[in-house]
Specification:
By secondary structure, this protein is α/β, with parallel strands linked by helices. The protein has two domains: 255 residues, Rossmann fold; 62 residues, no CATH class. 41% of the residues lie in helices and 15% in strands. The strands form three sheets. An eight-stranded mixed β-sheet has the order 4-3-5-2-6-1-7-8. It is globular and about 70 Å long.
């Protein structure tokens, strides 16, 4: 087990960074079955305050500032936990009560900052052996914390708002990432979208300027013609997160969006974004499905040998049946296949 690292970063505050970080961690842990570590480096601790409301989240005894200490000074034992459910899939390194420690990190001399960066990289290397995924909520300032979070990332997600000044700052983010980590993939995700006339115009500019750095959502439509399954590729579109009250409610109660009542539309939209993020980061998770689920998977492969991967991916992304029975499978088989996402690597459907 060697974790992938996902960093949520933007040099501007108030763009929904903590929301996306928290909901991605919830989705990874409780929808995809990934053993997930959440590291909050933002001294405002917004993400930590949401996560500690969830009784299933385990609180680590590690403090975020400890990750920047030398090996002799720090005590990193990811198995030492405080509270939460035993064997929880989501563990938190909380920024609550760490504001002064985190802010003061930048007050060191340049030579010390270089050493602290190295210490952080080493600490993440230690933690990676204990988890499937590490999610880092970075602070909005370009300092030792955000630079370190970017430097260790496999993927960097930057939520943005659809205003001209926001997209004009994207080049600076790209250049900074290129200096710190030229192997990480960067995706911009418009957040708090309300489809106003201004936002529509800004979105058009964003696609024209940075299309390759938007999160591509690939979907299919599935229909049945007698005993034949017909699959058609949907028009490519890009991941966006609308402004919805149910998202604020989810954060307020410390739950995944799917828990909120009367929220089918919101969950249907954001689950496609979260699935695509997980697909992009490609967590290396062991296949551990129960025998009956494996049997359902084999039935799918036999009934649809050329289409099974796309059908299974559709079930995982959308989380619902097709409105008709798949030839060769029962409804119980389809439900087994939907649940298979929790015990399989997403690369199974790549």
């Amino acid at each position: 087990m060697v974790a992938k690292v996902l960093t949520i970063s933007n040099e501007k505050g108030g763009v929904g960074k903590s929301f996306l970080a928290v909901q991605t961690a919830f989705y990874a842990a409780y929808q995809c079955g990934c053993k997930t570590l959440f590291i909050d480096l933002d001294s405002q601790a917004n993400a930590s305050r949401v996560l500690i409301k969830n009784e299933m989240v385990t609180l680590s005894n590690i403090k975020p500032a400890d990750l920047f200490l030398t090996g002799e000074e720090r005590d990193i034992n990811p198995e030492a936990e405080i509270g939460g459910e035993e064997n929880s899939n989501l563990q938190l390194i909380s920024a609550i009560n760490s504001k002064e420690e985190l802010i003061s990190l930048q007050e060191n001399q340049e030579s010390e900052l270089i050493q602290m960066y190295s210490n952080f990289v080493e600490a993440i290397g230690v933690l990676k052996s204990q988890f499937d995924l590490i999610v880092i909520d970075s602070n909005p300032n370009a300092d030792i914390r955000s630079n370190s979070a970017v430097g260790v990332a496999d993927i960097i997600i930057s939520p943005i708002q659809l205003y001209t000044e926001s997209i004009q700052g994207l080049e600076g983010i790209v250049n900074r990432v290129g200096q710190l980590n030229n192997t990480a993939r960067v995706y911009f995700i418009p957040n708090m979208v309300d489809h106003s006339e201004l936002q529509v115009r800004t979105a058009e500019k964003l696609v024209a300027m940075n299309k390759d750095m938007l999160l591509p959502i690939h979907e299919i439509s599935v229909t049945r013609n007698d005993d034949q399954i017909v699959i058609e590729e949907c028009e490519l579109h890009y991941g966006v997160i609308k402004r919805r009250n149910c998202f604020a409610v989810a954060q307020d109660i410390g739950k995944g969006v799917w828990i909120v009542n009367n929220n089918k539309s919101g969950w249907r939209e954001i689950r496609r974004v979260l699935f695509t993020i997980m697909e992009a980061i490609d967590v290396d998770k062991e296949f551990s499905a129960a025998d009956e689920v494996v049997f359902s998977l084999e039935k799918l492969k036999q009934a649809h040998p050329d289409k099974w991967k796309r059908l299974l991916r559709h079930l995982w992304m959308c989380g619902h049946t097709f409105g008709f029975t798949l030839p060769g499978l029962s409804q119980g088989d389809v439900q087994n296949l939907i649940g298979l996402k929790e015990t399989s690597p997403i690369s199974l459907v790549s």
